[in-house]
Amino acid sequence: MDEKIVFLTIVGMTLVTYIPRVIPVLALASRTLPAPVVRWLSFVPTAVLSAMLFPSLLLKDASFDFSPENFFLWASIPAFILAWRTKSFFGTVALGMSLVAAGRYFLG
Amino acid sequence: MTTSVIREESPTSTWMSALRQASPIVMGYVPVGAAFGVLAHKTGLSLINTVLMSTIVFAGSAQLIAVAMFAAGMPPLSIIATTFVVNLRHLLMTASLAPHLKSWKKWQLALFAYKITDEAFALHSARFARGDTDKTTSFLINSIAHVSWVLASWAGFLTGSTIPDIKPLGLDYALPAMFIALLTMQVKNGLHIFVAGFTGLVSIALIQAGADQWSVIIATVIGATFGVGVESWMKK
Predict the structure, then answer these.
(1) Does A14 fall in a domain?
(2) Is the residue at A63 inside a domain?
(3) pLDDT value for B1
(4) Per-residue confidence band for B3, with pLDDT thresholds at 50, 70 and 90
(5) Cβ(B60)–Cβ(A52) under 8 Å?
(6) Closest by alpha carbon to B175, among B65, B61, B67?
(7) Any residues with CB less than 8 A from the CB of B72 and at least 6 apart, and which?
(8) Of the candidates B36, B66, B72, B139, which lies 20 to 30 Å from B150 by C-alpha distance?
(9) Is B84 helix (H, G, I), strand (E, B) or coil?
(10) Which domain holds residue A87?
């Protein structure tokens, strides 16, 4: 593999990754945004986290997976309940990982 | 546990707080970063280019896709174009963090934005929402995540194919579990739950329709617009 071409590709990837990351903060941080825009942006964290999380819990190879072996899905139920009741960031991560590990050990 | 994460006074506790908050990210990044290193090695990338990609691109899924595309002999321009599409979702993430960063200097914003991955965004949006916009903690969290990603890629490259199986430890659930915790913290009322479920379904539908690379950004735009729409409708 031509390492120079790989290098130039990496530089290109850096630019197209960094520009969309930096433009919004530079353009918006110092400005007072119109109320509807602020309201729209206030839904973005919930929306973007859901858009990333739910497919990882519910899908396997782009199909719904409700089988007992889908530990990601079943572990999420007690994890959601614990997160909601205790607001504990660590407790939720520890519970989720332990349940997935236990599921694989005992049932996998 | 939660209170100590919110309040920090001394430099030591700032470090501890950043380490604790970043720890699920590190647990998630180490195995994935190592897997990236292994794949890069197998594909025939040099060590320097592998570590360089993790250092200057710093975008998990895009890097894995890029390596697969290099392996398939795809032209550089399509690799760059795919990276652009896959990472475009960060535009929405940094836009939603922007209103919390009014007092930051330009160079601080430029440096902060450089390290906004999905996971860093998730963590910061929950922190900022509860009023913790401490700059030192923010930069420490980003740097801890970045360093763990770079070191893991490097280690993966050097060890080659001898990565231990991480599945028995459940490490591959560190990031989904972190998203569960952070999503729950974002949810302020019934409307947010509704928006979360709706956006999740839209994202799933897009993936099933074959739009994997666009699913997150399109679902987010639809979901946030839906949230504002329902909110305005309820106020009438």
Answers:
(1) no
(2) yes
(3) 42
(4) very low
(5) no
(6) B61
(7) none
(8) B72
(9) helix
(10) 32-106
Contact B171 A13 (CB under 8 A): no
| Cβ–Cβ below 8 Å for B182 and A49 | yes
Query: Which residue is closest to A70 within chain B, CA to CA?
Result: B173
Left (φ > 0), alpha (ψ -120 to 50) or beta: where does B35 sit? alpha
Contact A1 B44 (CB under 8 A): yes
d(CA B108, CA B179): 26
- Any A CB within 8 A of B139 CB: no
Residue B164 has pLDDT above 80, yes or no: no
Phi and psi of B165, rounded to 5°?
A: -70, 125
Q: Could you tell me if the ipTM is greater than 0.95?
A: no
Q: What residues contact B190, with CB distance under 8 A and at least 6 apart?
A: none
User: Distance, in angstroms, between A25 CA and closest chain B CA?
Assistant: 5
Q: What does pTM read for this prediction?
A: 0.88
3-class secondary-structure state, position B122: helix
Dihedral class, residue B113 (left if φ above 0, else alpha if ψ from -120 to 50, else beta): alpha
CB contact under 8 A, B79 and A9: yes
The pLDDT tens digits of the residues spanning A49-66 come to: 999 999 999 999 999 999
Sign of CA dihedral B133, B52, A19, B195: negative
Task: Report if residue A16 sits inside a domain.
Answer: no
Task: Retrieve residue A36's tokens.
Answer: 């509807």
